[in-house]
Amino acid sequence: MKRYLWLILIYSLGTHATIFERLAYPYWLPNKMHKIKEPPKTITSHSIKVPFQTAELSIHLWFRKTNSHKPVIIYFHGNATNIESLNKLYILLGLENLGLDFVVFDYPLYGLSKGTLNENTMIASGQAVFDFTQKTFPDRPIFIWGRSIGTGPAIKITHDNSSKVRGLILTSPFDNSFGLVKTRFNYLPEKVINFVIRRNTWESSKRVRSLKLPVLIHHGSNDQVITHKQGMKLGNQFPKENVKFISVEGFGHNDIFEYKFFWKDIRQFIRDTTQ
């Protein structure tokens, strides 16, 4: 019975969005739970227009800019959050406590961002945010941080701008979309998986092989959303001398920020990389 499930799913979910997009980018969940409000007083709200092949994208972001010359972090969030939830879940507070400036943004359809949502539009949005960060924070070291599904665009933007990125931070990453789907639905034929991910392949494993910059990875040993094995597969594709992979024993996908050395590790990584 299971082997026919893919047929039911494909036809029941329609043709306007692939199954992968429906499952991987559930933007309606955080949008319902976390309505975008005014940012905290230390943070500025901004929107940028991003020309795209089919239609213009509008990307909403928050950024913190002080008068320091310290590094800047661009944060690519996971699929079940938006920038308002980053505030409520104390991720923004964690970033502020690092003593750094930062930029956080929403992918198309998340929060107040508009447009179509797939790998190409997420990459276009990420590149536009990177360009904005360079212009807003000239001559500052830039770190890119990707979380969960956000590790896909974070890796792509780092790959395309590697000479301008000081370091890459990944939390609960995956190697590619094929592996992500195969792990959850191992009964699906490969042809079906390739059809499901056709607009969202996220070939991160291939993109990281040529990266020659420092990388920090955290992955929970009990992660049931993106398995520790998938994170290890990705980690093993980086040049060995550049990557530090931290297996967070006993932690899963959603509680990894509670690991007692999590923020300390990131602080030390940035400090070591900018000295």
Descriptive labels:
Rossmann fold, alpha/beta, eight-stranded mixed β-sheet, 275 residues
Short description:
It is built from 12 helices and 8 strands. The protein is an alpha/beta fold. The N and C termini lie far apart (58 Å).
Instruction: Describe the strand arrangement of the main beta sheet, using strand numbers.
Output: 1-2-4-3-5-6-7-8
Topology-level CATH name = Rossmann fold
Q: What are the low-pLDDT stretches, counting only 5+ consecutive residues below 50? A: none
| Total beta strand runs | 8
The total tally of domains equals 1
General shape? globular
CATH 4th-level superfamily: Alpha/Beta hydrolase fold, catalytic domain
Structural class computed from helices and strand pairing: alpha/beta
Into which percent range does the helicity of residues fall? 25-40%
How many helices does DSSP assign? 12
Percent of residues in β-strands: 15-25%
Order of helices and strands: HHHEEEHHEHEHEHHHEHEH
Report, as a whole number of angstroms, the end-to-end distance: 58 Å
Mean pLDDT, to the nearest integer, reads 92
Radius of gyration: 18 Å
CATH class: Alpha Beta
